[in-house]
């Protein structure tokens, strides 16, 4: 999932972005309305967290333009004003959801994930394929009943591949979906993360490399894929960790 945080308060924007990145969400930040529209013009975002009181261009106008352009981006409005009248006005502009400041991060995350699901074709919150089970709500992954500990980028890459339902996902599409701005496929970020992910998933390998095209979730061993030892043999869920994330 890719999120654009449009917030002029630098500290708050940074806190939101840091929290979402810990939860395997790719985040870009725009400090004002014109910058937000520029980023939306050149990048696809599942959700935009939009502060209403923005410099340069008011959040209401940003919302109007996004809705008018018929972008698939879902809009979560943030504002310090939480009266019923203000909430109704914000939703009337085309926002999909509304959250008043101050707010609990857990509620923000839940709303963002819910909106992200609405921006895509309907899929169940638990994704299953080739013996893999990924629970998007609990942020847990297991293979053949064995829970695995993945970094946030590994989790996000696996989620993207599972959501493709066997279709090929290019390296550029993975960059767009999982990493923030200014990341290029030439940095090897995708290949490093995939190598670690394949090692943790174990044998037989399920992530196929399609030469010249990208990657997909297959159903068994495929020539050219990397093999590695199975990580972890615990009987219960292992927490997601991020010790060596590839950026």
Short description:
With 247 residues, the protein is of the alpha/beta class. The chain is built from 8 helices and 11 strands. Helix 6 packs across helix 8 (189-201).
What fraction strand? 15-25%
Largest sheet: 5 strands, parallel
DSSP strand count: 11
Overall average pLDDT: 80
The side-by-side strand order for the widest beta sheet comes to 2-1-3-4-5
Low-pLDDT regions:
220-247
**C-alpha termini separation:** 16 Å
Radius of gyration: 19 Å
Oligomer state of the chains in this structure: single chain
Query: What shape does the CA trace take?
Result: elongated
Give, in order, the helices and strands.
Answer: EHEHEHEHEHEEEEHHHEE
Q: Which structural class should the secondary elements be placed in?
A: alpha/beta
Individual helix count? 8
Secondary structure: helix percent:
25-40%
Protein architecture, described:
- The protein is 36% helix and 19% strand.
- It has 247 residues and is α/β, with parallel strands linked by helices.
- A five-stranded parallel beta sheet has the order 2-1-3-4-5, sandwiched between helices. It has a four-stranded antiparallel beta sheet with strand order 6-7-8-9, with helices on one face.
- A hairpin with a 2-residue loop joins strand 6 and strand 7.
- The chain is elongated, with a radius of gyration of 19 Å.
- It starts with a strand and ends in a 30-residue tail after the last strand.
- 32% of the residues are buried.
- The C terminus is likely disordered.
């Amino acid at each position: 999932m890719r999120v654009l945080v449009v917030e002029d308060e630098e500290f708050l924007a940074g806190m939101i972005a840091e929290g979402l990145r810990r939860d395997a969400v790719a985040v870009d930040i725009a400090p004002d309305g014109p910058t937000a529209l520029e980023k939306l013009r050149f990048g696809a975002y599942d959700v935009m967290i939009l502060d209403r009181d923005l410099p340069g261009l008011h959040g209401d106008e940003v919302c109007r333009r996004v809705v008018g352009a018929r972008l698939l981006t879902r809009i979560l409005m943030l504002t310090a004003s939480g009266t019923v009248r203000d909430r109704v006005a914000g939703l009337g502009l085309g926002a999909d959801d509304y959250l008043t400041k101050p707010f609990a991060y857990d509620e923000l995350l839940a709303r963002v994930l819910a909106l992200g699901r609405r921006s895509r074709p309907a899929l169940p919150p638990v994704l299953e394929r080739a013996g893999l089970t990924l629970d998007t709500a609990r942020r847990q992954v297991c293979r053949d009943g064995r829970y695995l500990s993945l970094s946030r980028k590994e989790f996000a890459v696996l989620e993207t591949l599972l959501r493709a339902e066997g279709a090929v996902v290019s390296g550029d599409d993975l960059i767009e979906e999982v990493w923030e701005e200014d990341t290029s496929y030439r940095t090897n970020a995708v290949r490093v993360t995939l190598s670690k992910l394949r090692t943790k998933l174990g044998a037989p390998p399920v992530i196929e490399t399609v030469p010249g095209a990208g990657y997909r979730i297959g159903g068994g061993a495929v020539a050219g894929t990397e093999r590695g030892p199975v990580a972890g043999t615990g009987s219960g869920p292992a927490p997601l960790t991020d010790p060596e994330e590839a950026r």
